[in-house]
Amino acid sequence: MNFIANFPLFTIVLSLFSGVLCFMLKGKTARWYTVFYEVFLIVLVLSVLGYTLHTGTSFTYPMGEFPAPWGNEIRAGVLEALMAAAFLVILLCSVLAGARFIDLDLDNSKVNLYYSLVNLMTAALMALVWTNDLFTGYVFLEILTLTSCGVLIVREIGRTTLAAVRYMILNLLGSGLFLLGVVLLYDLTGHLLMVPMQQAVAELSRDSTVLPVLTITAGILTIGLSIKSGLFPFHFWMPDTYGWATPTSAALLSSLVSKAYIFLLLKIYYRVFGFEVIERMPVRNVLLVLGVCGIIVGSLQAIYANNLNHMVALSSAAQIGYIYMGIGLGGLAGYTAALFHMLAHALTKSALFLTTPRLSEVSGGSLLFKKLQGSGLKDKRAGAFFTVNALSMIGIPVFAGFSSKLQFGLAAVGSLSWKKIVVVMVALAISSMLNAIYFIRTTVRIYALPEEEPDDRQQAVAPESAGNGGKPGKNSGVYSAAAEEDPAGNGAAQEDPAGVESVPGKVRDMYVVPMLVLTGGNVFLGLFSWVIVELIHTGLGMFGV
Amino acid sequence: MREWFEHWLSGDVDVMENIMDAAEVPDIPREIIKEQNKSFREEVYGRQHTKEAIQAEQRGFYLLYRVVAIASCIVLIGALLYTVANLPDYGQENPRTVEVVKRYVEQGLKETGAINIVAGMILDYRAFDTLGESHVLFTALVCVMILLGRDKKNMRAGYEDYYKISRDAYFDISHDSIIRTVGTLILPCILLFGTYVLLNGQNGPGGGFSGGALLGAAMLIFSAAFGLQDADRLISRRAIMAIISVSLTFYSFAKGYVFFTGANGIENHIPKGTPGAILSGGLILPLDIAVGMVVACIMFGFFSLFKRGSIGGD
């Protein structure tokens, strides 16, 4: 066995260890450790990608000395390595670009806990990507659930606590349904590893009395994971969850965590039920309909949002709808489109969530559209990055959004069913228009010349006035510029000698480089989409076997 | 009853009033508590949010909500009942579904060296899942530390001492002679039994999670009976954090080593021992001890965090 085959194991075990290590380190050390560790992981994962491309096959890696149906297993192929690499790059960029806001939002004594959670989240993401065992998937799903609630509550304002409670309840509901599905499948097949499970399912599905049971099981697994990833009727937690979290958390939650759940769902469809069995179930058509509903409803709600972060979060609901639409279309083209859009959306959405706090910071700390007028002129870099990524969201050529919409169109035409073609094409057209409405409106707004005299009364009734623990009534739901002037104020971190760095503007933060990486990846996906599509095709070719 | 409950909610009634008379409770002005509760509610829920909720209720949204909730529950119950009715019968001899279990039962003792098949399964055959499981606990601890750990953001300026001392004393029951006596009597038994369960996971029912929970319970009873100050003398904050980190690190690397050697076909040089002896089952005993330490410390950590907002005393 080539030594590179050990790397997936290292990514999981070392990430778990890093989580424990950051628990013991000081905040700043933990940050730099995390950054260098993620770079190291990216190298590992890229070599796995190169290795699998070179050999042209996937490989399984037994966890322990016991062979396949008895022991535990992980598996790596081109697709897994590609997703893992993309996840890690986005995670690293989010941590780097949002580091200043982490210092601002968190108490100094808790910064290391944040990085501990980030490392545990990395472990969970890696395990969900590599796993070849359904129950391992469940265990790391739990870690992902807990870490995602953890990175949400770190901000310690009432809004995030409420959002985290809601997110937690829904996530646990999803986990419970997922566990139920795993239990039912285990009862039916007697296996937990995906390969023997698939053989058993293929055998069982010929029995016409068992097929409805399998369908219900697939439905339960799908509902569980779609609650967690925020498909249409379950997308209502998104605005609060993404909108109030600290920027890095918002980027991680919207672009990685929800994608990991969808990737696990794809894995279950492909590797547990198998292509043919899933084709015979109505699950996919339901997903198509819900995906299209999510696209339309999410976009409409985003138009009505009056808060920038809420708008971006609701646009996430629409983009998750796209991904499920691709899964619903099915076939190689459909899955390719879904996976491509997962990458495109992850890059774009993380970049957007990392720019919005900067825009809000220069406009008096508010995220309301009224206050944001002219913020793109005040912070030129953030404005430029926002515009580029907004254009990608709308689907302007050159950017990733365009390529993924093209993939969806191709997949719809390739499905050769006029109903699907009409539904998908109409959904694409309407949603592009709606996306254009709210993103262009925002872009115009941030480049318009600012008006005079902000109205104080409006700020008082704004939803941001939830206040924080220290200062009730103080406008702490936002990155208030007042925190700079008031030493006893918001973060209160300024009192610490070590906390000098948390004053905005003084910290040496990496912002341009990670944002350039994200935007560059976006443009790369837009211009050279065939490279990624080719990779996804290769990966899907070895995914099912 | 409801009126009383509402009074209690608004902080007018003190449940501990009569119980706590004997304790030397520092005098906390009732007004401060009242004011704090009030501002806390404002902070968490916010006027705006409450208004929205009331408006939604008035719009009849909640009626629809209830109807949909009940309908979806009924659908889910029906689907699950149908599914369960069509599952294979319990205990049915099906060569496909018992393939894995059969090997665990028949070969488990030989392959893992543990009489307790369950321990062999979770710590040897499927050790990767248990590795994740123990880190689930750790993740929960980190989340609770973030949520409840006292810092400058969730403590009102000027009230640090109030949070540190008076809350602690206010709910302290360690002055109570009944609790103290019963604790003295019961503690050695729990400690002994917990240690036994922890160390005999490979030979009988028990293991890291259950033994650790018993030891953790012993620590909780100790701190309830003798006060947190005494418990802090037993184990400090740094000790708790060190034990958790070292145990989990040991777990990760020991299992990582076994995975690595197993996958690469290298001999791992871990003796299986004689089945039935304390030192048997290969890595099962050390892993059980590590998990037990983690569980016990995390239980105490949760207790301490809920009680005073810190994982342990300094």
H-E order of chain B: HHHHHHHHHHHHH
- Span from first to last CA of chain B? 42 Å
Total beta strand runs of chain B:
0
Shape category of chain A: globular
State which percent range the strand residues of chain A make up: under 5%
Mean pLDDT of chain B: 82
Number of helices of chain B: 13
Helix content, binned percent of chain B: 55-70%
Low-confidence stretches of chain B: 19-23
What can you see in these coordinates?
The complex is a heterodimer of chains A (545) and B (314). Chain A is mostly helical. Chain A has a domain at 282-462 and 510-545. Chain A has 24 helices and two strands. Chain A has a two-stranded antiparallel ribbon with strand order 1-2. The longest helix of chain A has 32 residues, at 158-189. Chain A is globular and about 70 Å long. Chain A starts with 6 loop residues before the first helix and ends with a helix. Mean pLDDT of chain A is 86; it is low at 457-478 and 480-507. By secondary structure, chain B is an all-alpha fold. Helices cover 70% and strands 0% of the residues of chain B. Chain B has helices spanning 2-9, 30-45, 47-58, 61-85, 99-112, 117-125, 127-148, 160-170, 177-199, 208-226, 228-234, 237-264, 284-308. In chain B, helix 12 runs antiparallel to helix 13 (284-308). The longest helix of chain B is centred in the last third of the chain and has 28 residues, at 237-264. The relative contact order of chain B is 0.12. Residues 19-23 of chain B have low confidence and may be disordered. Chains A and B meet through helix 1, strand 1, helix 5, helix 6 and helix 7 of A and helix 2, helix 4, helix 5, helix 7 and helix 12 of B.
